[in-house]
Amino acid sequence: MAADPNTRAALLEQLLGVNACRQIGIYPIPPGFKLSVVIPVYNEERWLAELVRRVQAVEIPKELILVNDFSKDRTPEILAQLEKQYDNVRVFHQPRNMGKGAALREGFKHCTGDLVIVQDADWEYNPAEYPKLIQPILDDKADVVIGSRFIGESHRVLYYWHSVGNKVLTTLSNWCTNLNLTDMETCYKVFRREVIQGMNLKSNRFGFEPEVTAKIARKRAGKPRWRVFEVPISYSGRTYEEGKKIGMKDGFQALYCIFRYWLAD
Ligand SMILES: Nc1nc2c(ncn2[C@@H]2O[C@H](COP(=O)(O)OP(=O)(O)O)[C@@H](O)[C@H]2O)c(=O)[nH]1
Ligand SMILES: [Mg+2]
C-alpha cells in the first residue's frame, strides 16, 4: 500500500467507497493543512515522551506546542530532548505553576495551524482519534468539535463518583449555555484557530473547560453562533497512583466557573 496517507486514502476509497471510508475517519487531508496540538505539561515525566510519539504517529501535518507548567520532576529535561528530536515541536515555559488553563492560554498564542486541538500530556486520550475529531470542521459543518467519552466508544472502568460529578457539571453547564453536550469536561476540544485565538480566556486552572464552553455558546454581536459538533472518543482513565491530579477542589471550581462565565464574559 502507498506510504503517502492521501494516496492510501484514495486507494481505500476506490476499494470501500467514499462513504464507508468517511465513516471510519479515512479521507484525504486538504493540501497545506496544519493542525496545532497544544499540550499543557505538569510533572508528566512518566508519560510525556511516549505521548509525543503517539501524537507524531498521527498522519496529519501538525505542530506541537508544549507548555511546561513549572514542573518539578524530569519533565523539563524530556521536553528539551523532544524539542531537539523533532522539527515540529516547540516548548514554552511558565514562570511558575499557574495551572492548565494558563498553560493553554500561553500555548494558543503560539499556534499557527488551521485548527487547534488540546491534548493532555498523559495517555488518557488517544491521538489516533484526531482524524475523526477534525472531520466535522474539514467538512465545514462545525467551527468547534468536542469529544465525548459517554456516547459510544470504549473506556476504562474507573471512579464512579467522578462520572457522577462529570454529569452534574455537564448538565449545569448545559442549563446555562443551552448546548446539549454530554461531556463538558473532556480534554479533546478542537477549534478553528480564529475561534480560540479570538477568545479572551481568563481561567488559570480547571475552570478552563466551563469557561471555554460558555464562550463557545455565547452570542456574538452581528455574527452567527459557532457551530459545535460532538464526536465519540475512547477514554483510558488513569488512577491517582498513576498521576491523576484533578480532585474535589477542581470540581467546585468548575461549578463556580459555570455560573461565573454564564453571567459575564
Ligand atoms: N493537575 C494539573 N495539571 C496541569 C497543571 N498544569 C498543567 N497541567 C496539565 O493539564 C493536563 C490535565 O491534568 P490531569 O491531571 O491529567 O487532569 P485530569 O486528567 O483531568 O485529571 C495534564 O496534561 C497536566 O500535565 C497543573 O497545575 N495542575
Ligand atoms: Mg488527564
Automatic annotation (TrEMBL):
Boundaries of each Glycosyltransferase 2-like domain copy?
A: 36-196
Give the highest taxon in the source lineage: Bacteria
Q: Which GO terms describe its molecular function?
A: transferase activity
* Record-linked Pfam families: Glycos_transf_2
- List the keywords (alphabetical): Transferase
Q: What InterPro entries does this protein's entry cite?
A: Glyco_trans_2-like, Glycosyltransferase_2, Nucleotide-diphossugar_trans
Recorded hits in CDD domains, A to Z, give: DPM_DPG-synthase_like
Protein name as annotated: Glycosyl transferase
